Amino acid sequence: MDAVYVAQDVFSGQPFILTFSGETFDLSPTTERAGELYVSPGWIDLQVNGFDGYDVNAPLLSLDSVRHINQRLWQEGVSAWCPTLVTAPFEQTQNSLSVLARAYEEDPWVAACLAGIHLEGPYISPLDGARGAHPLGPIRPPDWAEFTRWQEAAGGRIRIVTLAPELPGAIEFIAQLVQHGVIAALGHTHAHSACIRAAVEAGAVLSTHLGNGIEVNLPRHPNPIWDQLAEERLVASFIFDGFHLPANVMKVFCKVKGPQGCLLVSDASNLAGLAPGVYETPVGGKVELHLNGKLSLYGTEYLAGSASSLVQGVENAVRLAGCSLVEAVRMVTLNPAHLLSFEQTANTIFALDHATGQVAIVATCINGKVVYRNPDWPG
Predict the structure, then answer these.
(1) Cα(281)–Cα(258) distance, rounded to whole angstroms?
(2) Where are the domains of the chain?
(3) pLDDT tens profile 151-180
(4) Burial letters for 309-329: b for 16+ Cβ neighbours within 10 Å, e otherwise?
(5) Residue 20 in contact with residue 3, Cβ under 8 Å?
(6) Are 244 and 211 in contact (CB under 8 A)?
(7) Which residues contact 163 (CB under 8 A, 6 or more apart)?
(8) Contact (CB, 8 A) for 2 and 19
(9) Among the four given CATH numbers 3.30.565.10, 3.30.160.620, 3.20.20.140, 3.40.50.280, the one describing domain 43-342
(10) Model pTM above 0.90
């Protein structure tokens, strides 16, 4: 049976008659007034480490894990994502990249949704705080010959590399990345002002989860956060899960970078979507997922990654950072698509409860097909 609703384009405000018919949907312009239902381009997450118990950074990544994460993200409104590999021994990274390449080649839905691979490490700061939950042992300066082997294993699909520009050879490495069409991102760094300027001059264009992956105690000024905020040539990604950054920091970051300079990422770990409890993880070891969604190293207040999705990011951008709904959705659609030069025919259909600020994903549609439809909508 067909299901018919009135929805509006989140950017233009144009109302549509939205019709679901099996695995297809249709949008027809109307003059009827829309309520809480919105249509946007498909949401894009540049930083996904795992979801629903499946881990991109598992020592032996499997094709089924990649497929499961890909399909599970549709329930979060995500039509495109960047599997994110963190610091690991060479062989593990090599194997994971090969598996991701095979998944892309063998599964049409993975190919449709994989926006590129994000390599976060091992070329990051070894300092406590700056390296976050990354293991210290495999951290090392950038090596172009090593990266070339990884890119070959990935079938050329490494799209973003997050690195610390203060490491030996990093500035030259950034220039090589840019020359080969790879996005150079600054993160997990304690770089000083001149080093950040040099990295940007070499072609770096992104700050990875700005405000996190940094030392706990910093000089008042200058420091790497101020420098990256002030650098207009850098766009910045943020984790707006409600734990990585306090509300006042979210608000300041958004005001400084502006609607076009901000991207929201989930930084989701394999525990995203699971029940609260204590878990053992490949990265971070023993961790606790609390009832409120916070993920911490067991017995401490230190964060052990994120267990949220882009839904919470959009909600918090509006509720805590003072963004409009249009600005928040732009941060998960137009901005990441522009950064990646990524083209995809997709729509995320979601409902916003204007009283509570809660967002519910109603459907995710890719290449004209409804790949996910919320069975509880309307509730």
Answers:
(1) 36
(2) 43-342
(3) 999 999 999 999 999 999 999 999 999 999
(4) bbbbbbbbbbbbbebebebbb
(5) yes
(6) yes
(7) 121, 123, 124, 142, 170, 173, 174, 184, 185, 186, 187, 188, 189
(8) yes
(9) 3.20.20.140
(10) yes
